[in-house]
Amino acid sequence: MRQSRAQAIVEVAGQNALAALFPISPLEHFFASAPKFSHSQSIYLSIMESNKNKSHQEGDVAKAIEEQTAKLPSDIFLWTSVASMGVSLAFKIAGHKHTALFIGQWAAPLLLLGIYNKIVKTQGHD
């Protein structure tokens, strides 16, 4: 279909109005305001990238373990940690101080295992 002259004028006016409101696109604004690396930072980043040792790789056992643990849902570690805190509280209330401390200390390692599991899932292994 052919545009009428009035439609063409309205369309051009609308584009000019948008250009007046948004002289640069939001994406261009984002990249313009992004921090720039200094020369020394660029050199540091290139040195760190070149120093990565390609000869250090995961062993077969570590790969096998990571492949199996990656199948576990990450929230299992969270709920097991919360459960250990609850069981610890129950032992503390029951008067078993040392058992409560022992079981209560499981929470942090379980949460760390959950973080490791999440990293393996998202980043993979070597």
The run of helices and strands is HHHHHHH
Roughly how many Å is the radius of gyration? 29 Å
The percent of residues in helical segments reads: over 70%
How would you name the oligomeric state of the polypeptide chains in this document?
A: single chain
- The domain count comes to 2
Structural class: mainly alpha
Largest sheet: none
Percentage of β-strand residues? under 5%
* End-to-end Cα distance: 58 Å
Let me know the average pLDDT: 75
Work out the number of β strands: 0
How many helical stretches?
7
Low-pLDDT parts are: none
Shape label: elongated
Give an overview in words.
- The protein has about 130 residues and is an all-alpha fold.
- It folds into two domains: about 1-35; about 60-125, no CATH class.
- About 75% of the residues lie in helices and about 0% in strands.
- It contains seven helices and no strands.
- It has helices at about 5-20, 25-35, 40-50, 60-70, 75-95, 95-105, 105-125.
- Helix 5 (about 75-95) runs antiparallel to helix 6 and helix 5 (about 75-95) packs antiparallel against helix 7.
- The protein is elongated, with a radius of gyration of 29 Å.
- The model has no long low-confidence stretch (mean pLDDT about 75).
